[in-house]
TrEMBL record:
Subcellular location: Membrane
Entry-linked InterPro entries: AA/rel_permease1, AminoAcid_Transporter
Protein name in the entry: Uncharacterized protein
Bilayer topology: Multi-pass membrane protein
Source organism, top-level taxon: Eukaryota
An example molecular function term from Gene Ontology annotations: L-amino acid transmembrane transporter activity
Main subcellular location of this protein, as a coarse class: membrane
Entry keywords, A to Z: Membrane, Transmembrane, Transmembrane helix
Keyword Membrane recorded: yes
UniProt key word Transmembrane helix: yes
GO CC annotations on file: membrane
Organism this protein belongs to: Perca flavescens (American yellow perch)
Gene3D superfamilies: Amino acid/polyamine transporter I (1.20.1740.10)
């Protein structure tokens, strides 16, 4: 009888532990690798080739840019593997800046992420999704812009709903869409390689003409290439949800980035095998033009696969990025409501929902190539700051545990190249980068008024607390009951 009572008590205790509200470790090695690949391989490889070619000026140089962007992204990913295993909190860039350089740079990263970086990134991925869904129905005529934006908003709404509903469903959606997009890449690579093997090499002759290359436009070529590789850092946003992060984060990062780099270079080779540079520059949907050339019978399949690929990248962004806001709110750098999770679904519901209207507004008002340049300056500036912070932290705290340690030459090379590209971009595109820099600096007074010394009037605080309480009740969210780091 006593034994039975003890067993019942243990069962009750175990059940209570399962019902405790917190973010659970549910991401293994395969989901982690799929999460990175699925976020990286989105609209970029189907849109960015045009931007890379315009700014590099030749086929050979554009392929070189793709290779160098892949190597640079791998270097950055390795740096973030060290940061992710050294600091066990979720939050990515924000957490690493907070731990290495202090609260002001961390707050500014949080500020620009939700003011314009994340809305810009999500909106141009959404626009790519809408374009690839709509354009095949209107070819060869131009598709209505309004219809493209409506379909983009529908895709965005689906992704937000999945990420609000369940972490498990968001993870499964990501795995499924990753396999779909890899199939799409293979479908492009194979006919291109076959044509190349048969001697179709005329588009590669005189591939390194440098007459049209100008130094001021080269950083924009790298921005477009790096945009296509963007997403290698998203796994670091969910460190607290990765099973055995010390092993799985470095492994997932290395395997996924090598795979993506090889695929991207082969896809671009396939593009240039089947299309002339002039044809590529005239196309707003490169993969669709390629499909019409490579296999007419399956031409309608490619846009569908590309659209699903964009949806996967969008899903990965909405899965990872709200965790940065979640951690920032937990640290006191954002309103506490955003550090809460749903009591049954265990998703960071307020953080996900905040992004939705911001993305919709930028999606309606933005243009895709301007969005890339606009967001890239602040994104790469803070990535460079994070890796610089890692080097400073190594020097200041040499005994800090580092389960994975990237070679010093890789960390230094990545940091220097990032600062160089960011600095040169101020000269290449002063309008967009200047706006990006100015918007970043607007976070400084906000930090000193709302975080460093909370100086809001008492009446405002009362209204703010009242709204927060009712939002918490409406959304059914609460603070985590277990520390997950």
């Amino acid at each position: 009888m006593d034994a039975t009572q003890i067993m019942k008590a243990d069962d009750k205790k175990e059940k209570k532990e399962e019902e405790v509200v917190h973010l659970r470790r549910e991401i293994g090695l395969l989901p982690a690798a799929c999460f990175i690949i699925g976020t990286v391989v989105g609209s970029g490889i189907f849109i960015a080739p045009k931007g890379v070619l315009i700014n590099s000026g030749s086929v050979g140089l554009s392929l070189l840019v793709w290779v160098l962007c892949g190597v640079l992204s791998l270097f950055g990913a390795l740096c973030y593997a060290e940061l992710g295993t050294s600091f066990t909190k979720s939050g990515g860039h924000y957490t690493y800046l907070l731990e290495t350089l202090g609260p002001l740079p961390a707050f500014l990263r949080l500020w620009v992420e939700f003011l314009f970086i994340r809305p810009a990134v999500a909106s141009y991925v959404s626009l790519a999704f809408g374009r690839y869904v709509v354009e095949p129905f209107f070819a060869p005529c131009a598709a209505p812009t309004v219809l493209i934006k409506i379909v983009s908003i529908l895709g965005l709404t689906f992704v937000v709903a999945v990420n609000c509903w369940s972490v498990t469903w968001a993870s499964r959606t990501q795995i499924t869409l990753t396999f779909v997009k890899m199939f799409a890449l293979v479908l492009i690579i194979v006919p291109g390689v076959i044509a190349l093997a048969k001697g179709k090499t005329e588009n590669f002759q005189n591939g390194f003409e440098v007459d049209s290359l100008t130094l001021d436009r080269l950083p924009l070529a790298f921005y477009n290439g790096l945009y296509a590789y963007g997403g290698w850092f998203y796994l670091n946003f969910v460190t607290e949800e990765v099973i055995n992060p010390n092993r799985n984060i470095p492994l997932a990062i290395i395997c996924s980035m090598v795979t993506v780099t090889v695929c991207y270079v082969l896809v671009n080779v396939a593009y240039y095998t089947m299309m002339t540079p002039a044809e590529l520059l005239l196309s707003d949907a490169v993969a669709v033009t390629f499909a019409n050339r490579a296999f007419e019978g399956l031409a309608s399949v490619i846009p569908f696969l590309v659209a699903l690929s964009c949806l996967g990248a969008l899903n990965g962004g909405f899965f990872g990025s709200p965790r940065m806001l979640f951690v920032g709110a937990r640290e006191g750098h954002w309103p506490p409501i955003f550090s809460m999770i749903h009591i049954r679904r265990h998703t960071p519901l307020p953080a996900v929902l905040l992004l939705y209207p911001l993305v919709v507004v930028m999606l309606i008002t933005g243009e895709i190539y301007q969005l890339i340049n606009f967001a890239s300056f602040a994104r790469w500036f803070f990535i460079a700051l994070a890796t610089l912070g890692m080097l400073i932290h190594r020097y200041r705290f040499p005994l800090h545990p580092r389960p994975f340690k990237v070679p010093l030459v890789i960390a230094v090379t990545f940091t220097v190249v990032c600062f160089f590209i960011v600095g040169l971009s101020l000269y290449s595109d002063p309008w967009n980068t200047g706006r990006s820099c100015a918007l970043t600096l607007t976070g400084v007074p906000v930090y000193y008024v709302t975080v460093y010394r909370f100086r809001l009037p008492h009446r405002w605080r009362r209204i703010f607390n009242y709204c927060s309480m009712h939002l918490q009740i409406l959304l059914e969210v609460t603070q985590q009951e277990v520390q997950t780091y």
